[in-house]
DNA sequence: TAGATTGTTAATCGATTAACAATC
DNA sequence: TAGATTGTTAATCGATTAACAATC
């Protein structure tokens, strides 16, 4: 979940709120969606209106990284997209491994947006004897016991945890001793990792709870 | 994504930050995980340590809704679970519809945690002629054109959008004219809904961007 | 009693936003 | 020039946290 808890520091040493980071991603999505519509420039006002964000917030977010606009013209769509992709580290590709080939793991395996932005799933693991060895959507499912070797051989950057919650910490520990430097945990169990690992916890049930809480008030 | 943007008001009229709401869900998950371990009480300190949250934050979050602890003892695990479930509206069941039977839609269809907490998927829709009529994990896939009737007949509460982004707003509009009062949008396209609808936007690519941004700095 | 732990107050911290000078 | 829009400053707003009295 993208909260304002974790912060990063940009290349100039400035602290960047992680909510800013989340919004930069939204800006990129929006620019992608209007690209090719004929317009060349866009204002912070227009971006803000589309995304329900104040224009000052848009400009402030960008100001952490430089000056990219032109007074009275706004931002060049193509240039801003390039800038955002650079900020978000999307000017290179990343190798990811999925651990836990359930429904969610399979969904991520086929998630087109990931490929589009340069995230490549290069290995898939499970501990279920019935699944190991199977070819699943073009990916051979490996035994979790061969995790260390395969991750090292492929110098994998990102680990995706889609196991049952009970296995999350064990899997995370395994990842932390490998080349993996970023982890996305899709289980409802919080995990602990050393500070040199970037961790994103994505708990989908919390999104449903926010809805049920709200509906229940009525 | 659970940000601190949307707020709700509790039954006493107090404003509740939505980050508080997200944490309440985490507390519940944690209590679920230690339930049956033999302990009867737990302190805010212990909850905080497990979830990497300050004990004062835990107590503050709970204080929006009442006083549930006992001085020098902490909280009764069973009682606190009950309280959290009530706050989160989990003392009843909800009927949900999924629109878009791709990989993510299928994953949610089989998401055990949802059933566990009382979210029941009662109808599944798509606009793909090849999918319509098929029985998918026990659910017949309906034509999106029959959406209005089926949602009304089943008085569905929650709409889950797992279509391609391009269809998100159209689908959302359809939902807003139905009995649906809560929407979860899994596409990367932001949608607009009237203020009486609770909207949760879940953009999974943003979680990957947070990782790539971080790895790219190194 | 001493120790543990609550609930709440007040201080601090950080993020958002209004205002505005600069300028294309 | 007048209008549009930037980048930044300073004010505001809101969330987190330290401190502590209360009390089991």
Q: How would you name the oligomeric state of the polypeptide chains in this document?
A: homodimer
Q: What is the average per-residue confidence, as pLDDT of chain A, rounded to a whole number?
A: 93
CA-based gyration radius of chain A:
20 Å
Q: Helix count of chain A, per DSSP?
A: 9
CA distance, first residue to last residue of chain A: 26 Å
Q: Bin the helical content of chain A.
A: 40-55%
**Spatial order of strands in the largest sheet of chain A:** 7-8-6-5-9-10-11
How do the helices and strands follow one another from N- to C-terminus of chain A? EEHEHHEHEHHEEEHEHEEH
Low-confidence stretches of chain A: none
Which sheet architecture does the biggest sheet of chain A show? 7 strands, mixed
Greatest chain-chain interface?
A-B, 73 and 74 residues
Number of strands of chain A: 11
Question: Judging from the principal axes of the Cα atoms, what is the shape of chain A?
Answer: globular
Q: Briefly note the structural class of the backbone of chain A.
A: alpha/beta
- Strand coverage percent of chain A: 15-25%
Describe the structure.
The structure is a homodimer of 218-residue chains. Chain A is an alpha/beta fold and 218 residues long. The first copy, chain A, has nine helices and eleven strands. The first copy, chain A, has helices at residues 18-34, 44-51, 55-63, 77-87, 103-109, 112-116, 147-154, 168-176, 204-217, and strands at 7-9, 15-17, 41-42, 75-76, 94-99, 119-126, 135-136, 139-143, 158-161, 182-185, 198-201. In chain A, the strands form three sheets. A seven-stranded mixed β-sheet of chain A has the order 7-8-6-5-9-10-11, with helices on both faces. Chain A has a two-stranded antiparallel sheet with strand order 1-2. Chain A is globular, with a radius of gyration of 20 Å. The model of chain A has no long low-confidence stretch (mean pLDDT 93). Chains A and B meet through helix 1, helix 5 and helix 9 of A and helix 1, helix 5, strand 10 and helix 9 of B. Chain A binds a DNA duplex (24 and 24 nucleotides) through residues 4, 15, 17, 19-20, 43-45, 54-57, 59-60, 62-63, 67, 69-75.
